[in-house]
Design goal:
This is HypC/HybG/HupF family hydrogenase formation chaperone. It holds the Pfam family HupF_HypC. Belongs to the HupF/HypC family. It comes from Demequina capsici. InterPro entries: Hydrogenase_HupF/HypC. By secondary structure, this protein is α+β, with helices and mostly antiparallel strands. The chain has a single domain, classed as Roll (SH3 type barrels). The chain is about 15% helix and about 35% strand. A five-stranded mixed barrel has the order 1-2-3-5-4. The protein is globular, with a radius of gyration of 17 Å. The two termini are about 30 Å apart.
Length: about 90
């Protein structure tokens, strides 16, 4: 299951894109919030797959970030789904 990330808007462009800061990393996203085009620097958003999908209040963002920090799961490096074309995996 994929979860959206919590990010803060750093810069907004006229073309509907914005620069976000998520955990110290900056990248560009597209504004797909229901109010579309009304994001401003300092706003908090939920981002998924390069799209800002919803706006959060500062207290909501703080709560979400706190919960994620408390319940974080370390990445499982090295695990992968079996390649179904691999004859060693098939019976």
């Amino acid at each position: 299951m994929c979860l959206g990330e919590i990010a803060q808007i750093v810069q907004v462009y006229d073309d509907g894109s914005a620069v976000i800061d998520s955990d110290g990393r900056r990248r560009e996203v597209l504004d797909m919030t229901p109010t579309g085009g009304s994001l401003a620097p300092g706003d908090w958003v939920v981002v998924h797959s390069g799209f800002a999908l919803g706006r959060l209040t500062a207290p909501e963002a703080a709560d979400a970030l706190s919960i994620r920090a408390t319940h974080s799961v370390p990445p499982r490096h090295g695990l992968r789904a079996p390649n179904l074309l691999d004859t060693e995996v098939l019976p």
